[in-house]
Specification:
- The protein is an all-alpha fold.
- The chain is built from two helices and no strands.
- The radius of gyration is 24 Å and the shape is rod-shaped.
- The two termini are 27 Å apart.
- 3% of the residues are buried.
């Protein structure tokens, strides 16, 4: 046996393979959750965009009110469109998760099927 070279037993290889499969599955779930959250942002931005195109004077942000609207009219802009830092973090987390998934896929490809 060569010095400094370590050979894994089949049990150890199976354990590593199982861990990689679990990590990949969990990462895929995380990506799905992050993509769903991104779609919520998209929907909110789309709604704001449509309101700005159709009737910009009727857009009511949180903390604002329209004197012409019935008393107590709630804001019609989803507050999430104002959370740019949250959106930036979401995009960064999604990129990181996709990179991890790609890395795991590469590692798994080294195991014979």
């Amino acid at each position: 046996m060569q010095e400094g070279v370590y050979f894994m037993s089949q049990t150890e290889r199976d354990a590593v393979f199982g861990r990689l499969v679990r990590e990949q599955r969990d990462t895929n779930y995380l990506i799905a959750d992050l993509e769903a959250e991104a779609k919520k942002f998209s929907s909110s931005f789309r709604s704001l965009s449509e309101m700005l195109q159709a009737s910009p004077d009727k857009v009511i942000f949180p903390g604002q009110f329209d004197k012409r609207a019935p008393l107590g009219s709630p804001p019609n802009v989803d507050p999430c469109v104002l959370e740019i830092d949250r959106l930036k973090a979401l995009v960064e987390n999604l990129r990181d998760a996709m990179k991890k998934r790609d890395d795991l896929t590469l590692q798994l490809s080294k195991y014979p099927q």
